[in-house]
């Protein structure tokens, strides 16, 4: 029988600027307000594809856990070996799973490091490396915008005909650089500008998502649902009035209710109790405001085999990124969206050895491939949607990645 591979976790103790620790090369991150986990180096990676991709991901992860001899002097969520996951929106496209060689985490001022192998504890960067990117050239296309407006109008017509109640349509925008794009600069910029979002990086997909699809911790489940958006003006008094109009908007409240209901229905079979606030709150970000609801639940204790992968299989895709009814909305997306989403709008985040984890929906993001990047934005389309306003909303959502890459 082959010997087990040592995995060691020790406490560091001090407050660490996680994103500043990332070296040049392939990095991984899930950071919000300074807390979270980052990793680098690849111990093992794979891709999964198809309708059983969440189950296949569990099988692959557990096959590696069986080979580990884990020494964990810290304990707690996100300590020990970590699986970084970035799942595709569609089962027909590839999802990426990575176990980093080195992981550093921090929560509430407590930090730790995990490394795989028999080597001594890895050294951390003393001072953050100064990183900048050359100017990007964006491939703006007025004709593409006009085509997207037409697609939104087609979706509204399908809703009025009774085919569907809501559908989320996305669009993309690409840019090129004279040099290879270094994701670290963009990640730091996103974290500074959007501290209430989860800043992520997995296999070239980087972004700052405000939407937590799933947190599982000690049998408690949380999902933050966002649906219904309005752009900010930059004037505080004006934005306060806009927030009030968003909270009263029948169109946005309808869109939001579909998204909340899809999450609540997915969690209900696994929870002994759930809490769904009667009204959403308005989440303020630097560029936009969203209607938001935090759905929480307690897992049924007898369902001990329920883990993150089980819940992901039920939650994805939610109405927030697909539509209602889900199956029909997915068909409409396939028919009229006219692009590959890849891992955009799929679950992204981390899973630990206990089966706990945090995964968001990959929004406000872009896929880097050497000196090119493709960014994405989507809008929830309901009966009251106006195609021109949806185009403006998508442009506002693009601004997060555009500014971070500038």
From TrEMBL:
Its EC number is 5.4.4.2. SUPFAM superfamilies: ADC synthase. InterPro entries: ADC_synthase, Chorismate_C, IsoChor_synthase. Keywords: Isomerase. It catalyses: chorismate = isochorismate. GO terms for molecular function: isochorismate synthase activity. The keyword Isomerase applies. The keyword Magnesium does not apply. Residues 145-397 form the Chorismate-utilising enzyme C-terminal domain. Belongs to the isochorismate synthase family. This is isochorismate synthase.
